[in-house]
Amino acid sequence: MTDRVVVAGAVYDRGRLLAARRSAPPELAGRWELPGGKLEPGERPEQALVRELREELGVEARPVERIPGEWPLMPGLVLQVWTVRLLSGEPRPLEDHDELRWLGPEEIHTVDWLDQDRPAVAEAARRLPAPGR
Ligand SMILES: Nc1nc2c([nH]c(=O)n2[C@H]2C[C@H](O)[C@@H](COP(=O)(O)OP(=O)(O)OP(=O)(O)O)O2)c(=O)[nH]1
User: Fold this and answer.
1) CATH architecture entry for 4-126
2) What's the ipTM?
3) Which end of the chain is more exposed for a tag (fewer CB within 10 A), N or C?
4) Of 3, 6, 98, which is best to mutate to test ligand 1, by the most ligand atoms within 8 angstroms of its C-beta?
5) Is there a cis peptide before residue 25, judged by omega within 30 degrees of 0?
């Protein structure tokens, strides 16, 4: 059986990375992740990511490039991450999250990331654009 893909966004703004705190389910609540969600049948990852970021954060966004790699989550689920450019809107925790935080390069480790997200977050942090971009 092939694993189901969860797509998540490395959303950057002024040299900071967006982190989102999950509000559910109970075993994940309070832990931080990259916003995104599961691919629906027939959906391409980029489409799924645009849809999820619209639903969860209320923003319009454009996937820019995939961060190479694929990270196992729970059995049957793997995480893929795209860098994302925000086109419009200010991210708000509308669904699945109860807090958002923009983290600069020195702040990446100040939130309690989901254990399984740490390698992906490290890759996302390595690609943080300079503050002017
Ligand atoms: N979005 C996201 N989910 C993650 C990350 N790390 C991680 O283990 N997960 C898990 C949590 C969930 O079990 C699953 C993603 O499902 P979800 O609940 O966010 O997605 P969804 O909106 O498509 O959910 P659903 O209600 O259709 O099941 O992957 C991450 O960085 N981002």
Assistant:
1) Alpha-Beta Complex (3.90)
2) 0.94
3) N
4) 6
5) yes
